[in-house]
Amino acid sequence: MMAVSLGGLDALVFFAGIGENAAPVRDGVVERLAMLTRSKHFVIPTNEVKMMAIHARDLLEQA
């Protein structure tokens, strides 16, 4: 509903486990949302475990 109210999407961004590693899932999403997007989609590599460790370290240093 939000995409329709905005007049479409400028791009789709895929990240994390499925977004990075499951091309068939991405392809299915892109296909189903084709009418809402201006045909741009991006895959952004992430490392959630590393980020959680960094945030945990930062919290411990503040304590």
Describe this structure in words.
- The structure is a single chain.
- The chain has one domain.
- The chain contains four helices and two strands.
- The protein is 56% helix and 13% strand.
- 2% of the residues are buried.
- A two-stranded parallel ribbon has the order 1-2.
- The chain has 63 residues and is of the alpha+beta class.
Keywords:
4 helices; alpha+beta; 63 residues; 13% strand
H/E element string? HEHHEH
- The amount of beta strand, in percent, is 5-15%
What is the overall shape?
Answer: elongated
Number of helices: 4
Tell me, rounded to a whole number, the average pLDDT.
Answer: 90
SS-based class: alpha+beta
**What about the largest sheet?**
2 strands, parallel
Parts with pLDDT < 50 across at least 5 consecutive residues: none
Helix content: 55-70%
| Domain count | 1
Quaternary class: single chain
Strands of the biggest beta sheet: in what spatial order?
1-2
Number of strands: 2
Brief rundown of the structure:
This protein is α+β, with helices and mostly antiparallel strands and 63 residues long. The protein contains four helices and two strands; from the N terminus they run αβααβα.
